[in-house]
Design brief:
CATH class of the largest domain: Alpha Beta
CATH superfamily of the largest domain: Transcription elongation factor, GreA/GreB, C-terminal domain
Number of helices: 3
Largest sheet: 5 strands, mixed
Keywords: DNA-binding, Elongation factor, Protein biosynthesis, Transcription, Transcription regulation
Helix content: 25-40%
Shape: elongated
Strand content: 25-35%
Strand order of the largest sheet: 5-4-3-7-6
Protein name: Transcription elongation factor GreA
Family: Belongs to the GreA/GreB family.
Pfam families: GreA_GreB, GreA_GreB_N
InterPro entries: GreA/GreB_C_sf, TF_GreA/GreB_CS, Tscrpt_elong_fac_GreA, Tscrpt_elong_fac_GreA/B, Tscrpt_elong_fac_GreA/B_C, Tscrpt_elong_fac_GreA/B_fam, Tscrpt_elong_fac_GreA/B_N, Tscrpt_elong_fac_GreA/B_N_sf
Order of helices and strands: EHHEEEEHEE
Number of strands: 7
Number of domains: 2
Structural class: alpha/beta
CATH topology of the largest domain: Chitinase A, domain 3
Distance between the termini: 29 Å
């Protein structure tokens, strides 16, 4: 049973989703099943089958969230310091080919969202950045080929 590293914000987000699914979605789905049952023959009742499928998906996600939250190791990023890249660091890099600057925060897998600049600690870019400092150059092997980045700044926000 491995611990799952997570920021406090990531934990709160998963906890809120769990509360939403248990207290709002679950009763809504149960009500939809009850209404569909009232329509009669269940074998050809599309509303009933759709509601049962929604219930199955919701209960599966609840179990997944409960598992992740029970194994969570919450790391308070605001208490971290240093000049080397580690979990929770926000790293500003520049792509050496395009000169485009990007900032990434290294977070746990459940809270990763590349569009919001949050990359999983298990991702190729995070693995390449871990242990490096500002001024270092890293080579990242991506599915689209190799990329080279220079680290401009390491911060813990």
């Amino acid at each position: 049973m491995d611990k799952v590293p997570m920021t406090a914000a990531g934990y709160a987000s998963l906890d809120e989703e769990l509360r939403q699914r248990q207290q709002i979605e679950r009763p809504r789905i149960i009500q939809a099943i009850a209404e569909a049952r009232a329509h009669g023959d269940l074998s050809e009742n599309a509303e009933y089958h759709a509601a049962k499928e929604a219930q199955s998906l919701n209960e599966g996600r609840i179990a997944e969230l409960e598992d992740k939250l029970s194994r969570a190791e919450v790391i308070d990023v605001s208490k971290l310091t240093g000049n080397t890249v580690k979990f929770g660091a926000t790293v500003t890099v520049v792509d050496e080919d395009t000169e485009e600057e990007k900032a990434y925060q290294i977070v746990g897998e459940p809270e990763a969202d590349v569009k919001r600049g949050r990359v999983s600690i298990a991702s190729p870019i995070a693995r390449a950045l871990i242990g490096k400092k500002a001024g270092d150059t890293v080579e990242v092997k991506t599915p689209g080929g190799g990329k080279s980045y220079e680290i401009l700044k390491v911060a813990f926000v």
